[in-house]
Specification:
By secondary structure, this protein is α+β, with helices and mostly antiparallel strands. It has helices spanning 31-36, 90-95, 100-104, and strands spanning 7-11, 16-20, 26-30, 66-70, 74-78, 87-89. A three-stranded antiparallel sheet has the order 1-2-3. The protein has a three-stranded antiparallel sheet with strand order 4-5-6.
């Protein structure tokens, strides 16, 4: 089970989100990649798992005006494209970590 992050920081100047985990692992997520990874029912078919979101419709200059914790298990992002339906649970957020260590360990397919 993935623990709750110890630190989450929006970095608007680089359009990235820094997430630090209890094991001192840090992930730096680009806003656009997070938005394209949304797994809500609007972005991914609930039954088939088919991606419904066309990633080309998400602008590279997407901003993250707001985010909020959901209980002690997830975070919700409110994107500048008005999308705010996705909940990113801590295990899901850790599983999509784009750092070299995670992608080399096979935790995330490129």
């Amino acid at each position: 089970m993935t623990s709750t992050p110890t630190h989450i920081l929006r970095r608007p100047e680089t359009r990235t989100l820094l997430v630090r985990w209890p094991d001192d692992h840090e992930g730096i997520y680009r806003y656009v990649d997070l938005r394209r990874s949304c797994c809500c029912a609007h972005c991914v078919h609930e039954i088939t798992g088919e991606k419904l979101l066309d990633p080309t419709t998400v602008p590279d200059d997407l901003d993250l005006p707001n985010m909020e914790l959901v209980g002690n298990y997830a975070i919700r992002f409110r994107w500048s494209d008005a999308h705010d339906q996705g909940l990113y649970t801590w295990p899901y957020l850790r599983s999509i970590c784009p750092c070299d260590a995670c992608t080399k360990e096979g935790k995330r397919a490129k």
